[in-house]
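Homework-ish question, so no full write-ups if that breaks the rules, but can someone show me the predicted structure for this set?
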Amino acid sequence: MEAHQAESQSPIVSRASAKKELPRHFRDNRHVWVFIELERGQVHPVSIELLGEGRKLADKLGVQLAGVVIGTAEDLGVRSAIAEAFAYGADLAYLVESPLLSDYRNEPFTKALSDLVILHKPEILLLGATSLGRDLAGSVATTLETGLTADCTELDVDADGSLAATRPTFGGSLLCTIYTLNSRPQMATVRPRVMATPKRVTHAIGPIIRHDLMMIEEEIVTKVLGFLPDERSEKINLAYADIVVAGGLGIGTAENLERVMVLARTIGGEFGCSRPLVQKGWMEVDRQIGQTGQTIRPKLYLAAGISGAVQHRVGVEGADLIVAINTDSNAPIFDFAHVAVVADAVALLPALTAAFTRRLAPHTNRCK
Amino acid sequence: MKGEKFHAIVVGAGMSGNAAAYAMAMRGLKVLQLERGEYPGSKNVQGAILYADALEKIIPDFRDDAPLERHLVEQRFWIMDGASHTGIHYRSDDFNERRPNRYTIIRAQFDRWFSAKVREAGCTVLCETLATRLKQDSRGNVTGVYTDRPGEAISADVVVLAEGVNGFLGTRGRLRETPKPDSVALAVKEMHFLPEDVIAERFGLTADEGCVIEAGGTISRGVPGLGFLYTNKESISIGIGCLVSGLAAAMERPYDLLEAFKHHPSIRPLIAGSEVKEYAAHLIPEGGFTAIPQLFGNGWVVVGDAAQLNNTAHREGSNLAMTSGYLAGKAIADVKDRGGSMVKSNLALYKSMLDSSFVIKDLMKHKEMPRFLHANSQNLFVSYPKLISKAAQSFVRVDGNSKLDKEKATSAAFLKARSRWGLISDAVRLARAWR
Amino acid sequence: MNIVVCIKQVPDSAQIRVHPVTNTIMRQGVPTIINPYDLFALEEALKLRDRYGGKVTVLTMGPPMAKQALEKALAYGADEAVLLSDRHFAGSDTLATSFAISRAITNLGLRHAPEIVFTGKQTIDGDTAQVGPGIARRLELQQLTYVTKIVSVDLHAREITVERRSEGGTQMLKSQLPCLISVLEGVNALRRGSVADALRAARAQIPTWRAADAGIVEIANCGLRGSPTVVKRVFAPTPRAEKAIQIKLNDDQCGPLVDEIIASIFEHQPALEASFQPNGLT
Amino acid sequence: MKAIVKRRVEDKLYQNRYLVDPGRPHISVRKHLFPTQNLIALTQVCPAKCYQLNDRRQVIIVSDGCLECGTCNVLCGPDGDIEWTYPRGGFGVLFKFG
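A: Not a homework solution, just the prediction itself:
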């Protein structure tokens, strides 16, 4: 790291306008990388969303997009990961294969990814903000002593080619744009369902650059004893539901939440709630939608009695259609809802359920 | 740490608790203070006005670093009916003195400052600790306090009950009764935030001058009550307090009264465009002198709201609380210095100090006021306000009627409403309650 | 056991309001609290100490005011506390923060290096979850994040078995001490400190370490200058341009209103109607 | 009149800072078939609207949001209609201003 010119303890603001002169040895970092995460042999949807985003950034920079796959050769997932990378716009793929990489462990994955980056010098490295992605990104960024911005809601490239990563701050009340000034790669993680899923591109498989993992099992301290998949029958996957119905404080009591669940079931959606309800113990934390809960991007989001504080807004803004029901015509949720219904949700929900049932009845021609 | 013993335990970190703890710690006593809130002030609610005169006796240089909002230069008394207010305003440049007499404060910030002083004086302060029960020996003498934390009771020679109007420990230890519905008022209050200059503009204030509005009338819908509006630096505290017995009898909702008060044509423009950031509620002792419980006993004394020390006529509370706390602390330290034990006879010193101070004198003077307000609530809070506002309007409005006719109509209205005898008896009883 | 728990004093973000007109943060009345996720880490550490003996030291990096957070941690039952506070730390991003904290932990453990360093899952103001991994990497601790349960600890063999949350399930790992553990929320319930704990906390003289006291010489790695990332712009989310379709409840019965809502939904999203398949009406 | 909007008490309470002590409500209403007049008054007088009538016209309490003013204790404590205490230390309402 080139020594910075001795500056007095400058306040944050002036530092922000500090010139971005990249130290020499970072000047030849090029290309955009996306880490393809595998979840039990399946490519995690967030990686596909990042390939879409990465393609956009690469085109703006006029560089290549690479998919990075880390895993074991005999795992079919690895094969499909590479195919998916090219199917969603990658120009090339890096593959680190080793039997040590069958289950996710921090040490071998960090070494594999860090060595690749040191060798091939990307300028931008994107990972999904999953529990795996966050665990890995943190240790890789520290190993490389580079900048890492978490949970980005928007990625763009400035005229001078530096990555402008925008993320929520102050608990989601505001957004801030963060730059990685004098180090490369510029790392960022993005939450699932924040970026749009790109269209598949029937793209010929491009070049695959393989590397071995410079590690032996004895060097790795942590062993995986086993893995217990979530056997809960219907796993709460709020993040990927097409339809979500959520209740907020305007629902009044825990009992009234039943009306939210009934409507959700009637229209084949998931149900959730805003943070205060989890704090009151009316719903479990997996049902919480918002900054500190799940980010959702459903086709239809129905908010009943939710005021729509910024912390909640950040988690739902991606929905295609937001229908908000609240008695307070000045509720903040009406600032970003598509359809604003000024009424009491508790009374309206049963009526809505009935109406939907009538409307859907002809489709399902099931007798009542 | 087997049952550590203290000279004194103070229950509560409000005005009276902090004053008592400070007084004793400054005299070198080993003092422990228990506060059930997350920090001193997180459970305290008040209008809130600070009376410098009382605090100067305890911390003379408090103005150097205490968090004060505005010093008061204007007091407005209003009598309100549905659409109007008739008032007396007193504003004087004298109040722009070097050591101003009254300030508006924000309790969460002020109590935290006061508690820091108490800690500096050497008192140990435990927050997030609820005192659940008094430790009493077989003869009922108080020897310590149980808390809701694991571990045994904490012992002390004397316990200072500064626990607020509800007197949770005092009533459980049968040292006093739960306050009666007709001797406490429920005040509900909101904090409205506005830019500093907007507040200054709306009340004609410069720098950190402050203004207070206190209003009675139809806003409490016949229940004995008082609306208030205090100007802080960049916020306005606005609320309304009504006698609990009155509210219960009239089945009135306090938050509806507050909304109506906020929407009153005389009030609405003053808080227009504000951002509300908190809604609080608190009981205010209204019983006056007759409601004061036993103030001391073997191993304990009662101070502040817990002793119902609140002057309803002048709406003063924090000065009585601070003074009673300070005097209790002083008395305990004096008894200790002359080697006395914390028995009832010695602790009587606290009561005698209190009697000779303004605290009891003022309360004695107005001891009939609560009953007077309570007995005549319909007249005082409904009929008179309407009569007065009609009289004022007729006096002001120019409509071609002769002044003589107008005066005749006004006096006719008063006579019709209260009859000659009623008017005279009201005046006499008011004077007697005030004397 | 020598256990270190890293905590942070953060603004209570649930109380943060953006001024509707000026879009600036309304600072008044936003109290500071211990980062809620850190309390689960503290409880986990206290449980280990109760079982295996030793001491729990709580460490935080922040302004002098952060001492209040340490006082509260002591009141819950922690044994010792250290505040890391220095003008040079101002403006640190996660990389610079993990550098300073790692040095302080090394300094803490000169006589007896800590077996476990605990952190919360993430902070509610930073939300990056990067400082834990940063510390683990710098102190070469085994990195065990999103831990839901400490199954067993064998001090002689210096082994630890944990369960951690990972995508789609729970991983069981066997690892070695020393390690860094970030604890998932909801795995335990914080205890109430005893009277003795509260008294000890109220009287504790909490040391404040400046950079030098923490054994930090390379000031260039701290604060703004040690931070590769920098915040360039802070702004409020822009409200949606076109106003929402307002549907007012004219009279009390919901009938017409409901049909209007459904109509506007299907008109806005025609494809939706097809995808409505009530899944097994229970 | 955007300036001051008629706001329901739930909206007022939402502004407050409150730490729920899950599973440990600090006030309970004694079982009764027919509520006393004072208990019924609580459904109107309680500033946080914690008391409501259930469908069998009995008075029930949801103590979340309680402002700990003590009005219910003053009206119904002495004759035992309710069991009244403060929340545990550090829980309940936490006034930012007070």
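Now go work out the reasoning yourself. Hint: Chain A touches chain C through 110 residues (CB under 8 Å).
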